[in-house]
Amino acid sequence: MIPLIVLITVLASVSATIVHLIPHSHLDLGWLRTEDQYFYGCGGDPNNVYLIISEIVSALTVDYERRAVLAEIGFLKKWWDLQTPAMKNQMKILIKTGRLEIVNGGWSMPDEACTNYMDLQENFVIGHEFMREEFGITPKIGYQIDNFGHSATFAEMLIEMGYQGLVLSRIHYHDKKERTANKELEFTWHPSSTEKGIFTHILYNHYSSPKSLHFEGLWIDNSFITDKESSCYTAEIIMKDLQNHVKGMAEAYKSDHIMLFIGDDFTLSSAERTFGSLDLMINYVKIHPEYEMELRYSTISQYFAEIYKTKESWSCYKDDFFPYADYPYSYWTGYYSSRPSLKLQIKKFADYVRATERLVAHSSLNYYQNFTKEITLNRVNKLKPLREYLALLQHHDAITGTARLEVSRNYAKKITKLEDSVIHLYEESLENSVNSLVRCQLNSTICPVLKDLETDKTPVKLIVYNPKYIHTFEILEIPISTPNIQITDEDKNLLDIQILHDPSPFFNTETSIGRYLLLLPISIQALCIRTFTISLSDYSSSVLEYSLMAKSGSISNQEYFIEFSTNNFTIVHDNKEINIMMNYEYYSPNIGDEYDGQSSGIYIFRPGSPHYVSTALCQFKNFKVINTQWVERIYFKCGSEAATKITLWKIGENKLPNIEHYIKPITDFEGKEIIVRYYTNWLHDDTFFIDSNGLKNINKTWNVHGGQKFETLEPIAGNYYAITSHIGFESGNRTFGVIVDRTQGGTATQNFKKSSKHGSDVEIMLLRKCLREDGRGIVFPLIEVAEDGTNLFVLSVHKLFIENSPNKAFELQKQSENPLQLFFGKGEEYSKRYVMVNKENNLLHMRLKDANTVIVRIRCESEDQDFNMAEILKDILPNSETARIGQLDLAENKGYGQAAEMVWGEGGSWPYDYFSKGEKRWQNIEDFKFSCKGFPLKSFEVNF
Question: By the 8 A CB rule, do 164 and 128 touch?
Answer without folding.
Answer: no
